[in-house]
Amino acid sequence: MFKRKSFITKYIVILCLILYIYIYIIPFQKQQLNHISTIEKSIVEKTSIYSDNCLGANVERNVDNNHRDNNRAYWNQLTEISIDRYKFGWKDFVRKEREKPQPTSWKEERGIVFVAGNDDTLKRTVGTIRLLRRYMCVLPIEIWHMEHEAQIAATFTTQLEFLGNVRLRDLSEFGLPKSISRMRNRGKQFQVKAAAIINSRFQHVLYLDSDNIPTRDPTFLFDTVEYKRQGAIFWPDFWKTAAENKIFRLLEIDCIDTWEQESGQIMVDKARHWIPLQLSWFMQYFHEVYFRLLNGDKDTFQYAWRALNAPFHRIETFVGMGGLMLNGIFCGHSMLQYAAMDDQQKPLFVHANLMKQIPKSVFNDANEKQRPWHLIKRYRDDRSNNFLKPEFYTVENTTIGCMNFASRKFENESLSYVESFDEVLPLFQDEYFRLGGIGGYE
Fold first, then answer.
1. What is the tens place of the pLDDT at every residue in 19-29?
2. What global pTM score does this model have?
3. For this UniProt entry, which segments traverse the membrane (predicted)?
4. Phi-psi sector, 411: left (phi>0), alpha (psi -120 to 50), beta
């Protein structure tokens, strides 16, 4: 009798355990598995939701592989926690900026802004300003420099006085919206471009790099339909942003098949776009993160605008190249940028970004005069053609870096064409050097 009761007791205990497992343990495990599956699905969705739109050859062939190869490991190690922290950082910054009183008036309506502080950049800027005045451009001009560059900048005061309405401005001036001094033990301050635009006394700004040379008076740009409608104009670069780049998740924007920005020239109405400018400054200030995603300051403007869904006009005409033949191969050392849709025959800006890194002797003609621009190389079907294949290469047996379209081994010349620089822009380089313009280095 005792054994029978013991058996029944064990049976009941086992039955209770089975019921407990069936009622509590199995559903809990399913719930956990579903939760894990949801997390995994969420991670996959976060990975792809912002990047699916630009997967494909049209984007991939125009990715700057040097930038990607140098930063891919950094992109891959960014965790969801890190990305969320960076998201909070820029969103919190924007929220605080919106709470501050924004400027309602400016001392002058329109003007040109440069950043130049050392002897070379100041000489290039002065040469460009002389050319602008030769074009009868009367826009007021500011040249911004860092505090430690004030002594060098002051040596150019007399030259600038003769050019009319040109001011040297110090980025460390007290009371500026974004004053900059040498802080955080940094040798170089990376947020100078956005800061100069923000701090300028102009509402409508045309920003130019010190090595960017207009080919005619650019004042008309302020009156174009595109600028009046959008309040900002950006120009294209040779490259597109890789789909795997974490910038899309960090800013919560779609990856789209479009060109990156070349910021040697920027137009912006600060009254309409004050907050996007602040975000661009923020991204330049925290360059340790954003420059590894955006390849320097150039795209911080376009991506700040996109993050805040602010309007801008992107020039549709593809960037061209200005240069010469070296060792039988085209060497492009200047980026040629164009105006709006109805004016694409002549470049408006000659951004000589590589020219200054090439020895002056390379450009000298038989009379020892500099002639750095012999040819213009452009793509046909300047807007409808989505195929650009730029490459950076080093001229054989030299340290000279050049740009070219397509592969030198498999170049399809039917996709591009070459023009005489002097036929397209007669007297441009004669006037530029006559007025003190700077070409290659000594």
1. 655 565 555 44
2. 0.86
3. 7-25
4. beta
